[in-house]
Task: inverse folding
């Protein structure tokens, strides 16, 4: 008879990290450098947007300041959300 796990082992796919590692290893050194550079630029843009948002009064922000504060660090937008904040989220 089968063990008494009752399918709990099927809840977690332990192969996913290995697949991600293999994909990273499959990248060329140039592709790896570009990926790291893109991540650094995205992080810098998000950090700059969050700092600007924290220093800016609520009446100088278009939309709810709390929504921007939650979305900027959480949403994975490849730099588009910080750009949208700087272009459209701030009142001049």
Result:
């Amino acid at each position: 008879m089968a063990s008494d796990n009752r399918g709990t082992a099927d809840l977690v796919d332990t192969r996913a990290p290995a697949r991600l590692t293999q994909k990273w290893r499959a990248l060329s050194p140039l592709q790896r450098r570009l990926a790291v550079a893109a991540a650094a630029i995205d992080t810098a843009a998000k950090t700059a947007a969050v700092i600007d948002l924290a220093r800016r009064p609520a009446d100088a922000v278009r939309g709810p300041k709390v929504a921007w504060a939650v979305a900027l660090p959480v949403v994975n937008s490849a730099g588009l959300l910080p750009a949208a904040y700087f272009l459209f989220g701030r009142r001049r």
Remarks:
- The mean pLDDT is 83.
- Residues 39-92 form one domain.
- The chain is about 65% helix and 0% strand.
- Residues 50 and 70 are 9 Å apart (CA to CA).
